[in-house]
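Figure 6 in text form: structure in, sequence out.
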């Protein structure tokens, strides 16, 4: 059963007009290649630096100079001057989205009604108040436009660190050969990153169900968003009542927004962890020697896309993960699992006795998130991070056991300070964490300034004792 209520329908509904600002109807096939082939951002693989042969680099830069001379400044740059050309990304993503169903008033009303109902039920299961003050039904293009600021925040640190690492890893003789070419190469890199980002966002825009579907808040603050066209396609694969699917997804969106609206440090902690990951990036420059031998200026002038194929070649760069990156990734996965586990528990508790398909929908979302659905795969290709909350089941179980051992207020109070949250080890052995929360003295964390003053006083007393 996929009888979606409220006028939700997929893009092949003949009763709706289609907006095709992007040209040919087959554009999805033209740009629909799966960009999720690996966890290396923007098609580059990361590793520890290695020595380079100066003669190979000289030959490579000479060929690149010839290529740029023939291709003109238009290919070398233009648009954004930053580490990622977001103008290229937005244009390519918009073209890949192609046809989409414009939203009608009935979709906007449907979203508002579903969120309003979900909020009433959620009030019974959490002490965190409602975080949604406005609702919206988005097209894929709406999602693209509203989410772009967050993508800039996520991608800039990674692209900047890659550029810095590459520059620092080049031998002095290579820099001498490169000369002014480095600026042109930087512009080309920005365009290449923008191309990869645009391909990924174009695919992702057609599959996200809500503004928080990837675990990060991508809508304006306090705005609850559903994407009816994607929800209609999602419902086609489920033999469940369409109205129940819409209310279930509205409840998940509303639960996410309660956390992101009333836990002020949460969104910033997620983004800062991505930046920590970026600082650990290292590029193995030894692959440039092989790359130099594969450049034919005449071929590149006739086929500019060939340079991207060469630079993204798995044979040119060997991926590695640094210990710093792995530590940041573990923290990110744990935090995402805690968010998703809390949302799952609260939504299941709120809807379980009211919507018969809650259990089936919960399991479907678990598989979609934990096994690496389209959102996780695309995100991995965009910034080199795998956002699968691998311990989603363990996190949901921890929150459930804490609720049973204490109460809803105690459980939600853990979000009051980042140091109160369980870590990866606690997810594997939750009993000790639950004992600490129930029986431990955590009052110091209620007033961080007071705790800092006590710490300073303790250090002062320790110093006096040792003199």
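Output sequence:
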């Amino acid at each position: 059963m996929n009888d979606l209520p409220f006028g939700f329908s997929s893009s092949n509904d003949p009763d709706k007009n289609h907006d095709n600002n992007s040209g040919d109807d087959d554009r999805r096939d033209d740009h629909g290649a799966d960009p999720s082939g690996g966890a290396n951002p923007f098609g580059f693989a990361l590793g520890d630096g290695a020595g380079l042969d100066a003669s190979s680099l000289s030959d490579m830069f000479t060929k690149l100079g010839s290529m740029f001379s023939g291709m003109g400044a238009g290919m070398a740059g233009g648009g954004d001057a930053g580490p990622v050309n977001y103008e290229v990304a937005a244009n390519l993503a918009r073209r890949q989205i192609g046809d989409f169903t414009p939203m009608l008033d009935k979709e906007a009303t449907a979203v508002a009604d579903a969120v309003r109902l979900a909020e009433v039920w959620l009030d019974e299961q959490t002490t965190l108040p409602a975080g949604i003050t406005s609702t919206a039904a988005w097209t894929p293009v709406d999602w693209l436009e509203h989410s772009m600021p967050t993508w800039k925040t996520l991608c800039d640190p990674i692209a900047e660190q890659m550029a810095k690492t590459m520059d620092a890893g080049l031998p002095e003789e290579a820099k001498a050969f490169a000369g002014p070419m480095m600026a042109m190469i930087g512009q080309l890199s920005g365009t290449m990153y923008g191309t990869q980002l645009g391909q990924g966002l174009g695919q992702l825009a057609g599959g996200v169900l809500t503004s928080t579907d990837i675990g990060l808040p991508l809508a304006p603050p306090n705005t609850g968003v559903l994407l009816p066209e994607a929800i209609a396609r999602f419902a086609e694969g489920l033999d469940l009542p369409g109205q129940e699917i819409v209310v279930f997804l509205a409840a998940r969106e509303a639960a996410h927004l309660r956390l992101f609206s009333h836990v002020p440090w949460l969104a910033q902690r997620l983004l800062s962890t991505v930046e920590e990951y970026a600082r650990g990036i290292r590029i193995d420059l030894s692959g440039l020697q092989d790359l130099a031998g594969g450049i034919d200026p005449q071929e590149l002038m006739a086929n500019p896309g060939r340079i991207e194929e060469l630079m993204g070649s798995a044979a040119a760069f060997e991926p590695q993960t640094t210990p710093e990156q792995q530590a940041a990734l573990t923290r990110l996965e744990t935090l995402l699992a805690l968010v998703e586990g809390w949302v799952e528990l609260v939504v299941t508790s709120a809807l379980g006795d009211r919507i018969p398909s809650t259990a089936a929908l919960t399991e479907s979302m678990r598989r979609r998130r934990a096994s690496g659905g389209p959102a996780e795969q695309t995100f991995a290709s965009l910034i080199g991070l795998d956002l699968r909350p691998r311990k989603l089941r363990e996190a949901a179980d921890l929150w459930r056991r804490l609720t049973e051992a204490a109460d809803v207020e105690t459980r939600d109070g853990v979000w009051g300070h980042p140091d109160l949250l369980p870590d990866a080890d606690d997810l594997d052995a939750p009993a000790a964490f639950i004992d600490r929360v129930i029986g431990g003295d955590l009052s110091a964390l209620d007033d961080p300034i007071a705790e800092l003053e006590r710490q300073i006083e303790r250090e002062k007393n320790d110093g006096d004792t040792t003199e």
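Caption detail: Residues 389 and 401 are 19 Å apart (CA to CA).
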